[in-house]
Write a structure and sequence with these properties.
Strand content: over 45%
Order of helices and strands: HEEEEEEEEEEHEEEEEEEEEEEEE
Strand order of the largest sheet: 1-5-6-7-8-9-10-11-12-15-16-18-19-21-22-23
Radius of gyration: 26 Å
Structural class: mainly beta
Helix content: under 10%
């Protein structure tokens, strides 16, 4: 008996040794990376921002005292390190004849704009799984919104990444990409989480319909000259439900209210050995979930008994352009952006508070932002100047904003802010 046991153990051990010596065709690997970023910035005016001024959108409207002196036109500063980031990339054995990979990424930006206790809180940025076949890619999880094109976005130093001119949002989603020669066809269904409409993610969830996106990208590269180009077009449709019920006096009624909106996008990126040029334009409605101006307004009350309403989305046009040098350790760049409130297609009710809009009293915003970045190994030191101007509506003799029945500002004054930003970035 003992000899049989020894023989079985020996055979088993030999089998394990032989199996271990065979090359693995599907291995598991992971890579940990990230960066430490310290930002030091000074502003000449109070601003509309996210997270203690770090994520700058545009200057706040002038606040004046009884003598007409501007209260909030004052130099201020902040030093922050909350953009520092941790990234874990994983690849593993094939599944369903596809290569598998995943990414988990977090930073310390926090999740709530008004909760100072959460300022240094660990926040989930990306968490997605990919399945890659020969010409098809399936992505599930939290990743950039499709209107934020990962192949073409501003390379600014500021954490706002070109907002509010550049769509900016990360969304839980299901995305499929099909490659056909030089073309890529992309379809995606998105929900909302950290970046939502003004009233929160339930507006989209209660509609029963995910945010729908479709895009076509074209790319080409000349190996002789080292030049490449990628361009694309995109479309989005989104429907939200503002309310499930309405209160009229002490009575509550179920209501069926919805707001449909669409967006069109075009982008292009040209890269040569010495320079990179990028541009993007977006025309869309109700884009507040992308940290852009817009939203929706009440059009009319259709049922005076229940208080049921119809709504009209605000139209917005935004565009940006960037030029960046590819000159080794010394990089120079210039970003320019413009966004304009084009109003709604239908009249809105002045009696209804516009609580689900961003920048309703702004006609347009523009920004010019030059930068310089020097790189030494894993260390980058950057300086950037952001000059941002917002055209705020003036008020008439009755103290009411000069905004017409479609939400278009008819008379405005310019309010400017200059931000000087310095950053130290150490990658690992």
């Amino acid at each position: 008996m003992l000899k049989k046991v020894i023989l079985i153990i020996a055979i088993t051990f030999a089998g394990v040794v032989v199996f271990a010596q065979q090359p693995e065709t599907h291995s598991f690997s992971s890579q940990f990376s990230g960066f430490i970023k310290n930002d030091f910035f000074f502003d000449t005016h109070e601003n509309v921002t996210i997270r203690e001024g770090h994520f700058l959108l545009y200057p706040s409207n002038n606040l004046k005292d009884v003598n007409g002196k501007i209260i909030n036109n004052k130099l201020n500063f902040n030093f922050l390190s909350i953009q520092s980031r941790l990234t874990w990339k994983i690849s593993g054995p094939d599944a369903f004849r596809a290569k598998t990979s995943g990414v988990v990424e977090a930073d310390f930006f926090g999740n709530e704009n008004q909760n100072f206790a959460d300022l240094n809180g660990l926040r989930l940025r990306h968490a997605y799984v990919k399945l890659n076949w020969k010409n098809t890619e399936l992505l599930t999880g939290q990743y950039w919104h499709p209107l934020f094109v990962a192949d073409c976005f501003p390379g600014v130093v500021s954490f706002n990444t070109g907002s509010p001119f550049q769509p900016f949002s990360r969304n839980p989603q299901i995305r499929i990409t099909q490659t056909l020669s030089k073309f890529r066809i992309i379809g995606a269904l998105n929900s909302q989480r950290d970046f939502t409409n003004i009233a929160g993610p339930n507006e989209l969830r209660n509609s029963g319909l995910p945010d729908i996106n479709a895009q076509v990208h074209f790319s080409s590269r000349n190996e002789t000259t080292g030049q490449s180009i990628i361009s694309g077009l995109g479309f989005e449709y989104k429907k939200v439900n503002p309310r499930l019920s309405s209160k009229v006096g002490n009575l509550e009624y179920a209501v069926d209210e919805s707001v449909g909106s669409m967006a069109l996008m075009a982008f292009s990126k040209f890269q040569a050995p010495l320079i990179t040029l990028k541009a993007q334009a977006v025309y869309g409605q109700n884009l507040t979930d992308l940290i852009m101006m817009g939203g929706y307004l009440t059009h009319e009350i259709t049922d005076t008994t229940t208080g049921e309403r119809t709504y009209t989305p605000l139209n917005n046009f935004s565009a940006w352009f960037e030029a960046q040098s590819n000159t080794g350790p010394h990089e120079f760049g210039l970003f320019a952006g413009y966004s304009q409130n084009l109003g709604a297609d239908k009249n809105y009710l002045n009696s209804e508070a516009p609580s689900k809009t961003r920048g309703l009293n702004i006609h347009h915003v523009y920004r010019l932002s030059p930068r310089y970045v020097v790189t030494a190994g894993k260390l980058k030191i950057a300086a950037e100047l952001e000059y941002t101007v917002a055209a705020y509506s003036t008020k008439n003799q009755n103290g009411v904003y000069n905004i017409d029945e479609k939400g278009i500002v008819t008379d405005y004054e310019l309010v400017a802010n200059t931000r000087l930003l310095a950053s130290v970035i150490y990658s690992f």
